[in-house]
Write a structure and sequence with these properties.
By secondary structure, the chain is mainly α. The chain has helices at 5-17, 22-35, 41-51, 55-62, 70-81. The chain is built from 5 helices and no strands.
């Protein structure tokens, strides 16, 4: 049975804020709140798949320590673009 869109988005938001490392909670929760409602089904599926990746890998991709796999590169760029900027 197909998961209703509203339920899927709620599940993805919950997975975005209950990560294995706190840094990813802080990064993904605001992104999910701001973007999931507007994503199409393909975007939600890609985001869902990305959430299954290891948190340490995700953090390295978002912090630009390593390059994200091609499959996730545009999504990671979108996440990075929405991170708050700090002034030095």
């Amino acid at each position: 049975m197909k998961e209703p869109r509203e339920t899927r988005i709620k599940r993805l938001k919950m997975r975005s804020m209950r990560r294995g490392i706190k840094e990813m909670d802080v990064i993904l929760q605001p992104f999910a709140e701001a973007n999931l409602e507007a994503m199409d089904e393909a975007g939600l599926s890609l985001y869902d798949d990305m959430l299954s990746e290891n948190d340490h890998d995700l953090y390295q991709w978002v912090s630009r320590q390593t390059q994200a796999p091609d499959r996730y590169a545009a999504l990671i760029d979108q996440i990075v673009d929405q991170l708050p900027r700090t002034s030095a």
